[in-house]
Amino acid sequence: MKKLLTICLLAGIFATAAAQPDRPTVVSPEIGENNTVTLRLYAPDADAVSVTGSWMEGWGSTVQLVKGEEGIHEVTVGPLASEMYTYNFVVNGVRAVDPSNPSVVRDGRRNESMFIVPGEKGDLYSTGPDPRGTLSKVWYPSPSLGMDRRMYVYTPSCYEASGESYPVLYLLHGGGGDEDAWTTLGRTPQIMDNLVAAGRARPMIVVMTNGNPDQAVAQNEPLAGSVSRGQAPAVSMAGGRFERSLVEDVIPYIEQNYNVDARPQSRAVAGLSMGGIQTMSLSFTYPEKFDWYGIMSMGLVDMTRFGVEDDYESRRHNLGNLRKTNPSLYWIACGTEDFLYNSVVELIAFLESNDFPHTYVETEGGHTWDIWRLYLSKLAPLLFR
Amino acid sequence: MKKLLTICLLAGIFATAAAQPDRPTVVSPEIGENNTVTLRLYAPDADAVSVTGSWMEGWGSTVQLVKGEEGIHEVTVGPLASEMYTYNFVVNGVRAVDPSNPSVVRDGRRNESMFIVPGEKGDLYSTGPDPRGTLSKVWYPSPSLGMDRRMYVYTPSCYEASGESYPVLYLLHGGGGDEDAWTTLGRTPQIMDNLVAAGRARPMIVVMTNGNPDQAVAQNEPLAGSVSRGQAPAVSMAGGRFERSLVEDVIPYIEQNYNVDARPQSRAVAGLSMGGIQTMSLSFTYPEKFDWYGIMSMGLVDMTRFGVEDDYESRRHNLGNLRKTNPSLYWIACGTEDFLYNSVVELIAFLESNDFPHTYVETEGGHTWDIWRLYLSKLAPLLFR
Q1: What total number of domains does chain A contain?
Q2: Is residue A7 in a domain?
Q3: Residue A177 is part of which domain span?
Q4: Is B94 on the interface with A (CB under 8 A)?
Q5: Distance between CA atoms of A134 and A156, rounded to whole angstroms?
Q6: S-S: B197 plus which of A339, B125, B130, B146, CB 3.0-4.6 Å?
Q7: What is the pLDDT of residues A65-102, one digit of tens each?
Q8: A102 contacts B236? CB cut-off 8 A
Q9: Model pTM?
Q10: B227 occurs within a structural domain
Q11: Closest chain B CA to residue A8
């Protein structure tokens, strides 16, 4: 009893040291029983506070908060559908994460506050009660790119104990992103844990690489020495260098260091946007390596407006080579509001005109992470069946 | 060549889609050759922009930025010593992370922008050119606390290939923190990688647990279902429940699932602040379990002002039991400006009056992460020698 008392008093000491007594306690976000969401910010000296959030129509839309008597600005939005949402306050024109919300995710170079509205999708994207896999940050040598590089490796909860060999999904991010993206915005560990626990997907290893061949590691990681004064840019997908490093460096490393079923029929690759180009490029350049493909929010972009002629001949040739390997799945998904939607229409037309077997999933939505989380949760159950 | 051109054009499409054409490009932070740091914020509609940073004397101190003609506020600080620094802008009284800086770290519930000034300490805290270990988020069953919980496990770069058994350091965070803290603010993976590569520390496994016994996982991770409406508090160290779970749940899990030298002489525990209390408590309650102890920024807090009598008798008894195990290291470190400094003076006096062998390191500094990174870099080289 004395010990308990002592410790509670000590806890009080820490709490006192951390508190800012002149500020009211603010709860934000507050998710109501009906899935309305109330956002609050203590800002007595701000003239205008608004919020921009991923639930709004149109990038950069804002909703004004109303200033209350104590200097707390507040707005209630929704009810919102079950989903993961990101948002920023805008204080006199400056974006700010919600100081009352510890959850922040990074989208490229931008940091945003995050919350999840419970329900079917929200729970799929959250840490559930079932056994959970391990997510590791792993460094590997990349001789083809001339440096050591970092990636994430997700192993399912049964991995250590079973001693079995597992199939592998190589999962690629989009332009501006890096190896963090599928683990944070993409919620891959949570989605895979929950799908596997529900028996909806086969247990598999998921490897999430950095698709920018000039980056060793995510753009928020300081590097020692002068390099810490600036990282390589995130958009640098030129020349198939990433695709080569995936095949020559990443896959051999994974198959040497993990319990992996190394047959092509146990190897999948999928990606969004830039990662969708890379997936297509891999299917054309290394068709014997993979048996399952997922292309999200990307198709055949019309380059003629830039004076680049389409090379139909080599594209048909590549598709012919791919056809010989008879892939188990060539899966394409796009939202009808995606700014690249027409490129996907073009891709589907190309595949159909060549009688190439494929699966096309068209949904609502644009070029955003809610769509890519949904696509992962639709694609993963199809793999390795 | 055509492929390269195509891809460069595609990169342009993405860049265009992401740009906000009406905003000037802002570089922040910019670290000069002389280690001055220039911070900039585009805020044409803000009346007052200041910055609060970890290089300043006194918690919550601010320095005003000067507004330029284009609406960019700017200040140059330093030259700063080589170190990792965190900061927030304050825009009309509201804290905001730097929108031009992708690096954000979380300290408890607060998110801050981060940069590292190169040099001896900065490089020790950054990703270096040498082989780097693996950092894994691992879920483990905790029967003593009645739930699955998450921890981080760092394995050194030589771990997979060597097949050897490694000693283990259990590293505990402070009040308000969680299992993330030593991996982000503490820079443990970088410090260990760099110390091991330089031959200054033995390769070891480092296990970073969540010291709040009512939390399953860090307070920024949404949990499925209604639980996602709120996490358990971070300050809840009552009753030795964490210490028991470390000994009964964590250590057996680590020793069953990793290549570990399971003898007590290959087991260390260290912690800061609340983690320092827990380390002391472990040394008194489970003296046979560990051989190496590190207590940072914590001592014997004077509870008499709360009406709690010191129980010298049981404390001396505990110390007697600990003495029988003849620990290889009982290491204590504190900064002279720490608000708990007097408690450490008290602890040292208690150990000296009982002729208990110990090592005391007194430094400049207070109750802050720059000190705890320094202490880890001083302690790790002493372990398992």
Answers
A1: 2
A2: no
A3: 134-217+235-382
A4: yes
A5: 7
A6: B130
A7: 999 989 999 999 999 999 999 999 999 999 999 999 99
A8: no
A9: 0.93
A10: no
A11: B238
